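Model it.
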Amino acid sequence: MATQKPRRVHLMDELRGVLIVGISLYHLLYDLAVIFPVGIPWMFSDWMNGIRNVMAGSLIVISGISCHYARSNLRRGIRTFLLGMALTAVTGLVIPSQFILFGILHFFGSMMMLYALLEPALKRIPTLPGLVGSALLFLLTWPIYSGFVRLFGVTLFLPGFLYNNPLTYPLGFACAGISSADYYPLMPWGFLFLAGSFFGRWVREERLPDFCYQSHLPWLAWVGSHTMAIYLIHQPVIYGVLMLIFH
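Modeled.
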């Protein structure tokens, strides 16, 4: 018997549209603050960093949900990771000061491939324990870049050798002499992706309110359904326009 095609989650497309517009505006401000001679003193304030993390985290959760709608997460992951490597090459050649070693495209590609490989094992984990466990691991590893993990007030400092190996940099262990203008390591963000994938089971089973599956702003949903293309072209467009304005 053929499997019924799941309803499209229009609200998720619309949310993606809002997020990619917000990220584009953030990158415009970032370019003005870092690359071009415009002072924006609040650009790297705690509240601005919080907005950036909320936008990126929301996209990561949605990407985890989308694993249940992809024809092949492995192919999707390989394609996304190669796009990330292309971005590495372009930034290294054109804007070395903004070199991206392991950015969000590398992260998405890696997690899609990992999900494809781990899917048989993940299916054995019940939804609610998987969702809660992934969320707790995300909170636990949130400060890993600073050399420790923490949960419920208990702090555990990690051994220094983990932070002296370039090979562990994509995992979330900062390494002296290595930096990336856009850095989304597998920890802690990978656990947020997995939380989204567990929640995605309920989404695909249409357990959310009907409001989530109905179309509200088709133009915004269209923007959201072209998130990858917009992400790839928005920075060159912004940078080119600012070059014309300032030079």
